[in-house]
Amino acid sequence: MQCVAVPAIFPGWPGERGDINKKIRITLNGQERILEVVPYRLLLDLLRDEMGMTGTKEGCGTGDCGACTVLLHGKPVNSCLVFSGELDGADIVTIEGLKIGPELHPVQDAFRQDGGAQCGYCTPGMLMMTTALLRENEQPTEEEIRFALSGNLCRCTGYAKIIQAVQRAAEMMREKKITEAKG
Amino acid sequence: MEKLSFVGKSITRVDAEEKVTGSAIYGYDLVLPDMLYGKVLFSTRPHAIIKRIDTEKARRLPGVHAVVTGKDAPWTHGETIKDMPFLAQGKVRFVGEPVAAVAAVDEDTAQAAVALIEVEYEDCPAYFSPEEACNPGAVLIHEDYDSYRKSDIIVPGPLPNILEHFKLRTGNVEAGFRESDLVLEQRYVVPAIGHAALEPHSAHAQVDPESGKVTVWVANDAPFRVLHETAEALGLPKEKIRFINPYQGGGFGSKGAMKVETIAIALAYQTNGRPVRVKFNRAETFVSTITRHEAIVYIKSGVKRDGTLVARQVRIYWGAGAYAEKSPTVCIKGSHPSPGPYRIPHVQVDGYAVYTNKPLAGAFRGYGVPQTAWACEQHMDELAQRLGMDALDFRLKNVFVDGDLSYWGERLQSVGLKETLLKATEAIGWGKKTGQSNPPKGIRIGKGFACIAKPTRTPTTSTAAVKIDSRGDVMILAGTVEIGQGCTTILSQIAAEELQVPIDKVRMHSLDTDLIPFDASTTSSRSTYHMGNAVKRAAVKARDQITEMAASLFDTSKENLELSNGKVRVKDRREPALSFGEVICQKLGSDGVVAGDGAYTFEMGKDVDPQTGHSEHASAFYMYATQAAEVAVDEETGRVRLIRMVAAHDVGKAINPLNCVAQIEGGLAMGIGAALHEELVIDDHGRVKNPSFLDYHLVTSLDLPKMETIIVECPDPNGPYGAKGLGEPGLAPTPAAIGNAVANALGTRIYELPLSPERVYWAIQTSKKNPSPSVSAEPVVSNPTSFR
């Protein structure tokens, strides 16, 4: 019996496709960058493969696990579902841009202290999603946290320590705000 | 007991900062200079002879550097049975088996080349159930099984396709059944599930064209074992092979032995020294690495009217999938404790690991115990019900306690099981009304619990070194892999404790088999115990050198010295303390280093006898746990909602209580997934139907109930500070606890996992039509019946 293996997923290969690069201007972690990108390349691959920023993780590549969550114009997105060609003028924040100077962001510090990271592979995505949540909701209930993180899968923790860490981060950020207001 | 400064404290994970900043480098993140990208052609047939492979078109594609098939990689590997080729040789045995691979300048080119490879197959009969595969007359999946190289522990089976037969024989079960007042037999089914670690599998390999040295970068949980396997397969001396371990994004058993490694190595032999990266995507990770064993468990028990267990016979069919991988040891280690943690005079166990034409099954957190606990612990509840006894009283009457002689011939010590039973059942309010005494109409509430004992692989060895430099910084060299379980923190705490140095002065070296001393594996919950002991011994040796040097500097004897905060001083003397760095500088100079080494093997340990299943010391320690569940079942939909879960675990000594809780919670979540919705669905052509996180329901943050963890500390005499292991048991009793709670709620029992709404719904409908005998409150005393 004759059988041709797996059908071609790609119409050809780079040389044949005649890729046209597109020039885009983005703000990445607060820095303006001008990049030449292949428009159909994913933001996730742009970050990891082209820019060497591997803090953003790939867990599925199909928008199901949330490990690759970044902030695009302040909103959380799965970077595996965003094309590079759509990014002109985009403001992107990744895990590498979360620290405030040399200090950990409260969200990072809370996850560190409360055991929110075990293997740590879902952690960058969790942290970006948490950052987005706490920007919109300074005092989320446990239910709101669970709902916000329901698209970010974790196989290690059972989420309990993650929820705790988000609650602590919210607390830390509120306290910080109060101190700053006083100061 | 002496006061402890670091051990027993919930010290913040030392690897956490790297992980929350995104700077931790995982296997999937790794980039090597000048590397090529590999892609794989997978089999589309469950069982077929490869008549022809044509790679010509693929080879001619610009940008392709190498195309390999089984012919170019004439090697086989396997932990205990060398049955698995690096790439299919002449035959494929499951859908998803690697048949050929390409290395090219980028992934798109490699994928395009893969699509140009033509394969012609001739189909053979395929088996998708372990029971069918070992029917007399079944076609052999491995015709050459007899001639494969095998380790001594392998006992071939009496029927086709059985690759390992585990036997345990104690007393005489037939006589036991005759003496019993009640004999009950049931069949339980557990499907295959996926490990679903968030990081997919990948490997990078390079072969040095000059020296022939093979270097592999891979997040493998047993780099020394896989090094040994690679050396054996390639026929190279061990020094010609090096494994370098980046961070592992979760494994749960899937990232041991050789998976993507074989393909990366096969390609690297053809690329003139250029390294090759092979990454599996999520679907490939689900299908073409490994799964947890599906298991069919027959369990038959004889009991006295007063609840005394007399005899138990267990027969298990472990679905091994297409190649042996770790099935023989899962069969041995999973079948051995399958009769449960109970005193039983007559026991017979037959575990069969059976080849099928499904994806490989291998190590999975719990190593077989979760599957057999699903059977045994529901069976215990059903026995209690038929005897008219309380399920807790029935277990307390039979459960292992200190000093018991187990059915495998071991005198047990440090058994914290009873305490876990009492504490977990108390916390769930066993025997008391549920919190929701008036549930809404159509909602049925129930409680249940289950307990387990889990052995660890024995005997095994861990070795370590601890060095202190002239700045007083401590470096641990240990081959335990940080798989997320927190070993770096635990081992740092142990070194800090013995040396009395601040925890931030202690670091653990990254893992490279060329540099780090031997460790058996980061598996089987063995690291805290074995490597903990090795690091402790190494730290003591390093400390002795410091105190010896300090004694001469202070002109006193070692006994008069005391250590604290990285410094040494003379007790009751006013003289200022010297830091370790100062001691080293003064005695050895500013380049001086002090190093201690340590090794640990549980010397008495002896693997179980393959013919009888007996051993006087089958396991260095046992992990005991009880978990309890309260559930609400919706009669209309069959949906099981968890109200709460309680987990009581005997950890010996909690080196880091927060980390213990984290391990238990994570285990519970995994157990809950396996109980309620996880299943790899395989169709009748052998194809996995749900290899994605969209279709494979991993537990999300919305799926989990309130989880209460209880740490029981029944110290082990040989464990570091009394510690046992904890990595695996968190998920082992969970499905059975939930299953018992569901049976308690419904009055009918479900024997097959997962407890999906559909399955529960039909169980409710069936029980309405013909109430099952198990709901009878009267003890049913039956005559012994034949075993299937």
Chain-wise SSE layout:
The complex is a heterodimer of chains A (about 180) and B (about 800).
Chain A: H1 14-17, E1 22-28, E2 31-37, H2 43-50, E3 69-72, E4 75-78, E5 91-93, H3 106-114, H4 123-136, H5 142-148, H6 160-182
Parallel strand pairs in A: 1-5
Antiparallel strand pairs in A: 1-2, 3-4, 3-5
Chain B: H1 16-21, E1 36-42, E2 48-54, H2 56-60, E3 64-69, E4 76-77, E5 84-85, E6 91-92, E7 98-104, H3 107-114, E8 118-123, H4 130-133, E9 162-170, H5 173-179, E10 182-190, E11 202-207, E12 214-217, H6 223-234, E13 241-245, H7 260-268, E14 276-279, H8 282-288, E15 291-292, E16 294-303, E17 309-321, H9 327-335, E18 346-355, E19 361-362, H10 369-387, H11 391-398, H12 417-428, E20 443-455, E21 461-469, E22 474-478, H13 487-499, E23 506-508, E24 511-512, H14 527-554, E25 561-564, E26 567-570, E27 578-579, H15 580-588, E28 593-601, E29 622-634, E30 640-650, H16 657-676, E31 706-712, H17 734-746, H18 757-769
Parallel strand pairs in B: 1-14, 12-13, 15-19, 17-18, 22-23, 30-31
Antiparallel strand pairs in B: 1-7, 2-6, 2-8, 3-7, 4-5, 9-18, 10-16, 11-12, 11-14, 13-24, 16-17, 20-29, 21-22, 21-28, 25-26, 26-27, 29-30
Helix pairs in contact in B: 10-17, 13-14, 14-15, 16-17
